[in-house]
Amino acid sequence: MISHALFSLVVLTVAASVSILVVALLRAPLRHATGAQAAYWLWLMVPSSAVAALLPAPSSALATIAVPARVLALAGASAPARYAVIGLLVWAAGASLMLAYAMHRQRAFERSLGSLTSLPDGAYQSASVVEPMLVGAWRPRVVLPADFEARYTQEERALVLAHERAHLRRGDALANAVASGCLCLSWFNPLMYWAVAQFRFDQELACDASVLAATGTARRRYADALLKAQLAADSVRFVPAGCAWRSSHRLKQRIAVLKRPLPGYMRRAAGVLMAVTCIGSGSYVAWGTRAIAAMVPAWTCSKIPPILLGSAPQKMSHHETP
User: Which element (helix H / strand E) includes 196?
Assistant: First the structure.
């Protein structure tokens, strides 16, 4: 059972890592051709492929039953069994620590907001925030800084609220919570850290595109509002270090995307359809290769001399023929 669980963890990690590499290759071309929404949808390939890789093998029910037995036979020696237990304990400890740290950060951040003032439009205002944001996964709320009306023009305020409400409508806060959970489970995988950062960036681009498509407003005004929010956030985040290169780089990327003309409805719909096709294809491939992956421990076990499995070959009597 322990060896089978460790093997499943390896299969899940490989499936997720391969999916991340596929998304990394496809997201930019798909965004350029059909818009940011399709690139954002494409990230569903990572969790769907990982889940599909853990499903029973499609063509060999016998493999799903026999493989754990072979793995356990290989783990019959005390040393491999100990290594499997140690590996699972290290993974569980890391995942628990990551989850506890993420929950602590979330609670500490929500406490740092202080008292929230309810506004007539359903948003909230806090003197402790410097940029508009959406807070919370289960009950997300739009929180605005105290100087929101003074800092932004009327048109910019409408665009900022449209942006945050687009996040709220699309369930992006819950998606971020799920991404954080996946990161906790795959804390040892460096690709997952990169994937979560890129996922959130594509999420912002998709939200930008959604607002621009709905409002039909000028991109220059939207970029000005984005710049004001970004500069306010940088003034708090990067002082006293004083190095805002990464944030500035992201801002330049978002503005560069805003300069491109929005694709038409048919191209956007085709992009989402392509993304869904890629998600389904990737999940099917991960599910189909489950049987191949399951054969590896059995094949390895069959190639190991019996003496290493804890059973020595028995001597034949003179009545038996070789």
Answer: helix 190-215
174: which 2 tokens? 């819950």
192, 96, 174: which is closest to 136 by C-alpha?
174
136 in the Ramachandran plot: left (φ > 0), alpha (ψ -120 to 50) or beta?
left
Q: Kindly provide the b/e burial profile for residues 13-22, where b requires at least 16 CB atoms within 10 angstroms of the residue's own CB.
A: bbbbbbbbeb
Question: What gap in Å lies between CA 83 and CA 89, rounded to an integer?
Answer: 10
Alpha carbon distance 253, 29 (integer Å): 15
End-to-end CA gap in the chain: 36
Helix (H) or strand (E) holding 118: strand 117-118
pLDDT digits (tens, 9 = 90+) for 260-286: 888 888 998 999 999 999 999 999 988
pTM of the model: 0.79
